[in-house]
Amino acid sequence: xxxxxxxxxxxxxxxxxxxxxxxxxxxxxxxxxxxxxxxxxxxxxxxxxxxxxxxxxxxxxxxxxxxxxxxxxxxxxxx
Length: 79
Prior knowledge:
Blueprint: E1 10-12, E2 15-16, E3 19-20, E4 24-26, H1 38-41, E5 52-54, E6 60-62, H2 65-78
Antiparallel strand pairs: 1-4, 2-3, 5-6
């Protein structure tokens, strides 16, 4: 399902001064967000969860990444 499933870590990339930074593997499950973030006050944000599954052979398969990207792009165009 789509419920929250804790993981050992998460990937974070910061957007600053018009550029994306380097990916950072982070073990902290909490994030800091400014209280004035428009996503909190007016819903002016987009989120699209990408599902990935580990297989018995230790490979990881991502579920429909192209469809995921298209949905995110569509949401961004509306926001």
